[in-house]
What we know:
- Chain A is built from 9 helices and 4 strands.
- Chain A is an alpha+beta fold.
- Helix content of chain B is 40%, strand content 11%.
- At the A-B interface, helix 2, helix 4, helix 5, helix 7 and helix 8 of A face helix 5, helix 7, strand 3, helix 10 and strand 5 of B.
Amino acid sequence: MSGHEFQTSFPDSGGVDFSDRDSNLDEAAMAELREIASRYPQPRSAIMPMLHLVQSYDGRISPAGVKACAEIAGVTEAQVSGVATFYTMYRRRPGGKHHIGVCTTALCAVMGGDALLESVERKLGIGPDETTADGMFSLERVECNAACDFAPVMMVNWEYMDNMTPAKAAQILDDLAVGNEVKASRGATITSWRDAERVLAGFPDGRADEGPSAGEASLRGTRLAAENKWTPPSAAEAAKIVAEQAKQEQSKAEGEKK
Amino acid sequence: MIGTLTPVLSANWGAPQSWKYDAYVKQGGYEGAKKALKMPPADVVGLVKDAGLRGRGGAGFPTGVKWSFVPQDNPNPKYLVVNGDESEPGTCKDMPLLLASPHTLVEGIVISAYAINCHLAFVYIRGEVLHVHRRVQQAVKEAYDKGWLGKDIQGSGYDLDIIVHAGAGAYICGEETALLDSLEGRRGQPRLRPPFPAVEGLYASPTVINNVESIATVPSILANGKEWFQSMGTEKSKGFTIYSLSGHVARPGQYEAPLGITLRKLLELAGGVRDGHELKYWTPGGSSTPMLTPEHLDVPLDYEGLAAAGSMMGTKALQIFDETTSVVRTTLRWVEFYKHESCGKCTPCREGTWWLVQLLRQFEAGTAPEGGVDKLLDVAGIVNGKSFCALAGGACACVTSAVKHFREEFELGYTTPAWEAFPYERSALFAMDSLGGRA
């Protein structure tokens, strides 16, 4: 900020990469894209889930995917590109088999997220928005992922890895690298980022019953209440309380009248 | 008796396979919907209005009143859209609810959609939570299989479909009109109001948008009655809600209590600030709600109490920071969040959040110019209140409230890097081998 040089607010902006024409979208994929569109009253509403499906096939938002979505949604390719470049989950370049996210929004950052990110960067030898040479991992600095009571948090293919430390994260990355089974803290066995994108497009993978109902932090209030026999009132108790409240309000109103 | 904590939404979270239909029904699930379907829709609206349920997603607007704004004589379809884009920093209540008990939401949707004569409801859930999608997708499928969705629900003659929709990483889509644009397959940017969504929302049709927790609260009101709901909470903030404690607290987590509980009480239940440390500052409902300090420990955590203290209820995301934490560091990181998430539509927000970040980086690095605090407040003042939505306002609120309570710490930024004044490794939960200070 010393000089007055021009700086854009969106230095990481850029369009869909139309130089890379590679695509795996076949007739079966097109049928699935059309199936997504048929769920909605207006096919344009299907653009976001369709783009998730494009990513599961092509590993990124491909030119062929943009074209297919535009045709099905009845909009221009520019309009689809506009959507694809607005949302951070849509990739413009291929990433890793496993996509790692480390939360560095304020609370996670303070609780250790910054150090966690550094350790993951060192471990993988890449920075945020980069992919390892072997194509196994890509890395992202993510914003708050709604698991603050499990801070610091890491995401693997958008599955929760709660209460992370650099050592725990390193173990997870080691296991993923050699294909050992890794389970999310509150989720399923890790498969791949592309598989995750397919679920987000609305094609279930049959893994909903894996993992716990809740993490320890989620249950603390409920367990404490059970230990202390704290409950909401019964209907009869509630009626008594509300009648009492009404009486108090009435006497207060009468007092004000006087 | 009303317990100190009153688990209603979270009561079944620990049950075996709590996310399945059978487990939910065993806990009394779908009893509220059974009652609702026997009532005229307008009576369901009236009941929720009378109960006093207010929105749990931030603004606190009365839910039943919102429903009553839907013009029933409008010939277009009516839509219900559930906002599950939970992304406000610190907020972590809806995701555990949906993981553990997605049927609570599905039942709430059945009742709420019925009340406003809606036959197609949408659940918009942020994309970065894969397992939440699995559980909600499965619950919706189970509800179809059990006759709680689809045609002629439970023989009532009422039809309802639900579409579960995944976002793709944009905080702004938690803003209700940006969410609608997103759901229409556009870039998620807020709309100018009026018209309000109740009149012209999704596909320019009457639309109600409610937070996950608001809709999930509805079944309990139907099942237990309005008096039961009113018996909890305070005069104008009725009922119970999920308070989320995170940060430097011994036992972070979800604590469901009547509205009006204090942070002092919640901290006591959560084992206090982490051992050997003390409270420095906290947010009552996410980073967009002005921060508070230990002097506010006895403020009732309800809509009125927090407004009187100069803050807001927000999402009840209580982020706790102890004395090791640099307020400059967290303020910068929050404002970096808002800059990253600004949709770019309104110039003051797009440019202003960028400039706030540039200034705050100087404060963190200890290179801010003398008088920089006033410039910071000046920029925040210019940016605040000049955009379509509240995003920039949230960014400004976290700056102005931080300066209000900790001005001297910002002034330290003229000479001293934040990581020297408050060594970052002291705030972390694990031993660190580097400072984590980033350029």
